[in-house]
Amino acid sequence: MSALIDVDQLRTFIAIVETGSFTKAADVVHKTQSAVSMQMKRLEERLDRPIFARDGRASKLTEDGERLLDYARRIVKLNVEALAAFNDAGLTGRVRLGLPDDYADRYLPEIMARFSRAYPGVELTILCEPSVELFGRIDSNQLDLAIVTDCESSRPSETFRRERLLWITSARHSTHTEQPLPLALGRASCGWRRAAIEALDTIGRPYRLLYSSVNVGAVSAAVLAGLAVSVFPESALRPGMRVLNPGDGFPALPACRVGLIRNPHESLALADALAEHIISSLDNLSDSSRAAE
């Protein structure tokens, strides 16, 4: 093989795998469905073998497709890192980023440090709100980029991180043994809250919602004080918290997806640069230890 694989085709390929369909992937990569299909046809022609197989109305990866996925993720990630290394430090202006407050605590220090060093003349405006509200901010052109949670893949996003969603309690209390189980969760629109309640309903475990807040600090305080049990992604665990597992009577929860959504109204070089820094800083999809779906 003398010609190289098109990186843009690999990005589309990854989007199809992450979203589960050509249609959703088209939204993620900002292309028409026919363009996505044509890209995959050309990729298969380049490899001289099929990477997708029909499974009823859905498409699934062939064995060669599974092999390609690991290479695709590594190639795209390295491409992003290379572009970030040779960025245009002369860029100036403002870029607007939205993310939930718990991600701000965990992710912002590294993102801001790297981005500010690369683009000292850029103003970074941060808005912290729940994911469901950030979708609306993007749609109304109030943000250029947002980091969001998408546990159920309810809306296409550029997934760059996946973690286990865990039941947590205080390491110093036995709150998890109480009947009914006291819970501290996000508000009704929170995907983690829905996942927790659905899991408890499935096993018939009585519960009561004791605390509800959009602020992760308030939920953490209730857990650490031994007042309630909650659900957090693995990277959000804090000292003093204990993970509950099936042995404690708590069923497994779905994986937590973290992704990017971009402003569909306009494409900014600054937003693209920030997206590259976020992905290169936080991506864990190529890690062998990534959480199972």
What can be said about this structure in brief?
With 293 residues, this protein is α/β, with parallel strands linked by helices.
Order of helices and strands: HHHEEHEHEHEEEEHEHEEEH
DSSP helical segment count: 9
In total, the number of strands is 12
Global geometry: globular
* Helix share, percent: 40-55%
Tell me the strand order in the biggest sheet.
Answer: 4-3-5-12-6
CATH superfamily of the largest domain, please? Answer: Periplasmic binding protein-like II
Rounded mean pLDDT is: 85
- How much strand content do the residues show? 15-25%
In CATH terms, what is the architecture of the largest domain?
3-Layer(aba) Sandwich
- Using the coordinates shown, work out and report the CATH topology of the largest domain: D-Maltodextrin-Binding Protein, domain 2
Rg from Cα: 21 Å
CATH class descriptor name of the largest domain: Alpha Beta
Estimate nothing, just give the exact number of structural domains.
3
N- to C-terminal distance: 34 Å
Profile the largest sheet: 5 strands, mixed
Describe the protein.
The structure is a single chain. The chain is an alpha/beta fold. The chain folds into three domains: 7-84, Winged helix-like DNA-binding domain superfamily/Winged helix DNA-binding domain (Arc Repressor Mutant, subunit A); 90-163 and 256-282, Periplasmic binding protein-like II (D-Maltodextrin-Binding Protein, domain 2, 3-Layer(aba) Sandwich), CATH 3.40.190; 165-248, Periplasmic binding protein-like II (D-Maltodextrin-Binding Protein, domain 2). The protein is built from nine helices and twelve strands. The strands form four sheets. Strands 4-3-5-12-6 form a five-stranded mixed beta sheet, sandwiched between helices. A three-stranded antiparallel beta sheet has the order 10-7-11. The protein has a two-stranded antiparallel sheet with strand order 1-2. Helix 1 packs across helix 3 (33-47), helix 2 (22-29) crosses helix 3 and helix 5 (101-118) crosses helix 9. The longest helix is centred in the N-terminal third of the chain and has 23 residues, at 63-85. Mean pLDDT is 85; it is low at 286-293.
